[in-house]
Design goal:
- The complex is a heterodimer.
- Chain A is mostly helical.
- Chain A is about 75% helix and about 5% strand.
- Chain A is built from 23 helices and 2 strands.
- In chain A, strands 1-2 form a two-stranded antiparallel sheet.
- By secondary structure, chain B is mainly α.
- In chain B, strand 1 and strand 2 (about 65-70) form a beta hairpin.
- Chain B is globular.
- Chain B starts with 7 loop residues before the first helix and ends with a helix.
- Classes of the chains: A mainly alpha, B mainly alpha.
- Chains A and B meet through strand 1, helix 5, helix 6 and helix 7 of A and helix 17, helix 18 and helix 20 of B.
Chain lengths: ~500, ~475
């Protein structure tokens, strides 16, 4: 049995990182060894994270599996890890998606597979580190270190315009992060250590809070990404290899959303309250405007990338309507709904967008084109694949019974309590999302067989079917029975709402 | 311990340098040069050992207090000697290939090291000037080591003319301070200046001292010699100019500004603020436009000098600790960078244009990975040590309420990230299409490979656990 004394979080962080180095060292002489080793490490990590889940007590908002070691005492930096109901679902999502990405690239990546797989494993460890760090500098180290493997993944295995995309990605995110770094240092000088929970308790004036809030916003808005700093995402996605797109969309964007919950809201509640209009406006613009932008895309990956931005708008909307809801109704029930909706939306988007990128990857591997106009009539030659892709597109549009519906519905329901207009604008996504998802499906999947190339396509093989099938099961499961996920995070969200309702002034 | 043994590191260095000169006379051929090389390395190692053996917490003075041995001098000497030892290892095969691995090179390097060592222990303007000139004269000569190259001669000439002018400035400032205070001792100068607040002559003299020291840092606007020197001289000499002297310059800057001229702190802080902003701005922006890799490193060195001086200008113990940590880690990083350039230079060819790094990952993945570490460390991305250096400086700056400067610093480091990334891009993302039959890499001994690996991985190890070195640096300044 998993003992409470095991440093389980450290294992989940360091096993993939050290494993990644081993995979790198194994070299490209025999890529079968490399691949099986990478898959083995990813699976063991996933199993260990299940241990985390089984040992997790959902009834409390306190941090669990806490580990604390000294690290740099001079700066008050400690190696402190722990998870609560907000971090755990995201960690599980990370460890769940990584083996799938390894399998998805199994036969596709022929150029330096050892470096490719190593980058993904290192990335996994770093992301779990981001979600479980309770020391601000440890968080920052993981946060920034994450850029290195992603930069390399896009730059080496990406498409034609990969260099531009990778450098744009790096500079954008780096710019946001350094401002956050200043905020973190400033907070440390006030609270005496880099302890994040200590940051939550520190008293700050409204002016200070506003600056800190904006610095955090610079970092998290770029990662989410929110309109108008979203422009790196379509470039990065289009040029990244399939696995890179999956990790970007399914996991890396979540880091930004997580940052709002762990830093912005609890550390600067008053600034969040006074600037919630800004975030809500940015979120609604993302939902409506980016929805229209997605509609006209010619490139499937770009379309999904824009749809990701629109869906992440729901996440930030759910997080920041809480103030308006409390103001409007006087109770925090609606606020909990909105925030949990945002969380569910993050997890669900992880599955759906990851699956859609994998679908595009399946097509791209066969025809080497991502353009919608090059396809048509796929259903005639690839019936199994067509069924799966239509299902994921429906989920992306928010079809009831899929996970996409739950998150969006919770957020819309909550935003009704804040302002009818918010709900109205947010609900347009049900139309827009259906429009761009289904229109793409119509053009790609249905109709007559477009070209001789399409006519010769072969249906998904076992490996591809397995990856997409697992994701389809997860989307359906979460859509029909979201209770375990909601229960897991409920106490932590309740606690967070309670914390941010109290002014720090 | 008896007093005369305090400057043992300097005695050892001087003896070794003289020994190298004499022994080299009796060596018949280049084949036997390894003997002097080993003697030089032995001298450096013995000097490090002598620092370690005699180090203690209490400062000890000598020659009426003009020479001092304290934790700061110990720390800086250890890293000075270490980087010079690495420089000699990297330069050995590179220079031998070019027929420049002479006894004079070794002796002059040792004299330059002796000069830096004296600077690190200077506690009076006279000692400081002696050390500085010994360093400068050795470096002028080393810059012209490649006698037949017009480029090297030009670089050496520029360096010599501008360097002598800077020395002149410094000497003029020193003479004015001597005129005001009647002493060249740092402690005495501080005492006298304390009693004459706002003396205009002192501020006038300060301008010259700041200019002289900023020149040694290669900080903007006293930077014009740096790119030409880096480009024109053999890489091994550029390395010697670009790494260790930063540490020595920082130590004298700390002793002069935070020690002797502390009463004038509001004045030198204003001047340094300007230098910091200009160095970071110009260094980072101009580096983007460079196609020559050594020129790019020269401009990047200016931006790092800006960061080091930012730590100094906080005039707090934290800031000084941060500055010395930054200088030490930067010296190690720059040593690795130039060392890699030397290893990658082919027989008879220099690595000059950035383009020549294209596709390095295909040719030698190990060196590409080491260069990757160096570049990410320079751009300040965790988990490499460059990040903690920047973190320490920024923390001290925020503590001193220098929010504006901290903001400028981080924004320019984002600009800086661009050109470091470009190097990585060339190595990893681009393929080398031009060279169908590439010239073989320089054949280097396993000692060089080992040293490069140690040097670059040290950046990563210190990045994961920077605690020890940080505490050491902080302890060295907080007395």
């Amino acid at each position: 049995m998993i003992s409470a004394h095991w440093p389980l979080l450290s294992l989940i962080i360091w096993l993939p990182i050290i494993g990644g180095v081993l995979v790198l060292a194994s070299g490209d002489q025999d890529s079968r060894v490399t691949k099986w080793l990478a898959l083995f490490i990813a699976l063991v990590t996933f199993l260990m994270s299940l241990g985390l889940w089984s040992g997790f007590q959902p009834g409390t908002a306190a941090m669990q599996f806490v580990e604390r070691e000294t690290w740099v005492p001079l700066f008050g930096m400690t190696y402190t890890l722990g998870v609560d109901g907000i971090a755990l679902p995201l960690i599980l999502l990370t460890t769940f998606m990584t083996p799938l990405v390894v399998v998805a690239g199994w036969e596709i990546i022929r150029f330096r597979p050892s470096q490719y797989l190593a980058a993904f494993l290192v990335m996994e460890g770093l992301m779990v580190g981001v979600f479980s760090a309770l020391d601000a500098m440890l968080f920052y180290v993981f946060w920034e270190a994450m850029l290195i493997p992603m930069f390399v993944i896009i730059g080496i295995w990406g498409g034609a315009n990969r260099v531009y995309a990778s450098i744009k990605f790096f500079i954008y995110t780096f710019l946001g992060s350094v401002l956050m770094l200043l905020a973190l240092i400033y907070l440390r000088l006030h609270s005496g250590s880099f302890d994040i929970l200590g940051y939550h308790a520190v008293k700050l004036g409204l002016g200070e809070q506003t600056w800190i809030f904006l610095a955090f916003l610079a970092a998290f808005a770029v990662k989410v990404p929110m309109w108008p700093v979203h422009t790196w995402l379509p470039d990065a996605h289009v040029e990244a290899p399939t696995g890179g797109s999956v990790i970007l969309a399914a996991l890396m964007l979540k880091v930004g959303g997580y940052g709002f919950l762990r830093f912005s809201l609890p550390i600067t509640p008053d600034a969040s309250l006074s600037l919630d209009w800004l975030i809500i406006a940015m979120s609604l613009i993302a939902i409506v405007y980016i929805g229209f932008v997605a509609l006209i895309q010619e490139d499937m990956k770009k379309l999904i990338a824009y749809s990701s931005i629109a869906h992440m708008g729901f996440v930030t909307l759910g997080f920041f309507t809480v103030f308006a809801i409390v103001r409007h109704t006087g109770s925090s029930n609606g606020a909990v709904l909105g925030m949990e909706g945002g969380m569910v939306q993050m997890i669900s988007h992880g599955f759906i967008s990851g699956a859609l990128f994998l679908c595009v990857g399946v097509l791209y591997d066969r025809l080497h084109s991502r353009q919608i106009r090059d396809y048509g009539g796929i259903v005639n030659v690839m019936p199994v694949f067509a069924a799966l892709m239509v299902f994921f597109a429906m989920a992306n549009a928010g079809l009831p019974g899929t996970s996409g519906f739950i998150g969006e519905f919770m957020v819309i329901l909550a935003s009704f309590q804040a302002n009818g207009w918010y709900a109205f604008l947010a609900a347009t996504t049900l139309i827009l999302g259906a429009a761009y998802s289904l229109w793409m499906v119509k053009r790609v999947i249905f109709g007559a067989v477009k070209s001789p190339g399409v006519a010769q396509l072969s249906d998904v093989n076992t490996r591809e079917f397995f990856v997409l099938g697992v994701l389809a099961v997860m989307v359906l499961l979460l859509g029909l029975w979201p209770a375990p996920l909601v229960q897991m995070m409920d106490s932590s969200i309740q606690h967070l709402i309670q914390h941010i309702s109290a002014s720090k002034l | 311990m008896t007093l005369p043994l305090i400057p043992l590191p300097e005695i050892l260095l001087l003896a070794t340098a003289c020994g190298v000169l004499i022994l080299d006379l009796f060596l018949a051929a280049d084949r036997q040069r390894w003997m002097v090389y080993l003697l030089a390395q032995g001298g450096l190692i013995a000097a490090i050992a002598s620092v370690l053996v005699f180090s203690s917490g209490d400062p000890q003075g000598l020659f009426s207090g003009s020479y001092i041995r304290d934790p700061l001098s110990d720390l800086s000497k250890i890293f000075l000697f270490l980087t010079v030892a690495l420089t000699l290892i990297y330069g050995k095969d590179y220079l031998r290939q070019r027929g420049q691995f002479t006894g004079e090179y070794l002796a002059l390097t040792l004299f330059a090291t002796l000069g830096m060592s004296v600077m690190a222990s200077a506690h009076g303007f006279l000692t400081l000037y002696l050390g500085l000139e010994l360093l400068a004269l050795s470096l002028y000569t080393l810059a012209a080591l490649d006698r037949d190259s017009p480029q090297a001669a030009e670089a050496a000439m520029k360096y010599f003319v501008l360097g002598s002018m800077a020395s002149g400035f410094l000497l003029y400032g020193i003479s004015l301070f001597y005129g005001i205070t009647g002493s060249v001792d740092f402690g005495r100068i501080a005492e006298v200046l304390q009693q004459k607040p706002g003396d205009p002559v002192a501020v006038f003299a300060l301008v010259f001292v700041v200019a002289g020291i900023a020149f040694k840092f290669g900080a903007v606007p006293f930077h014009v010699w740096v790119p030409d020197l880096y480009q024109g001289t053999p890489t091994s000499v550029a390395l010697l100019v670009g790494s260790a002297p930063k540490i020595a310059a920082l130590v004298i800057a700390m002793r002069v500004f935070a020690g002797a001229l502390d009463p004038l702190s509001s004045h030198w802080q204003a001047m340094l603020t300007l230098i910091v902003v200009l160095s970071m701005g110009l260094g980072n922006l101009v580096a983007i436009a460079q196609t020559h890799i050594k020129r790019m490193l020269a401009y990047s060195a200016m931006s790092h000098a800006g960061f080091i001086l930012l730590g100094l200008l906080t005039s707090s113990a934290e800031g000084q600790g941060a500055a010395i940590f930054y200088a030490v880690t930067y010296a190690l990083t720059a040593t690795a960078a130039f060392g890699l350039l030397m290893v990658l230079s082919r027989q008879g060819f220099e690595v000059e244009n950035l383009e020549q790094l294209k596709g390095l990952n295909d040719r030698s993945p190990w060196y590409a990975a080491m260069m990757l570490l160096v570049m990410f460390s320079m751009s300040g991305v965790p988990p490499l040590v460059g990040f903690y250096a920047k973190l320490a400086v920024l923390q001290a700056a925020l503590q001193a309420n220098l929010m504006g400067l901290a903001l400028i610093a981080v924004l320019f480091s984002v600009v800086g990230a661009y050109y470091y990334l470009r190097v990585i891009k060339l190595m990893y993302f681009d393929r080398d299409e031009d060279s169908k039959n590439p010239v073989p890499l320089l054949t280097v001994g396993s000692d060089v490979r080992l040293a490069i690996g140690f040097n670059a991985l040290l950046l990563l190890v210190l990045g994961i656990s920077p605690s020890g070195l940080l505490a050491y640096c902080q302890a060295a300044v907080s007395l």
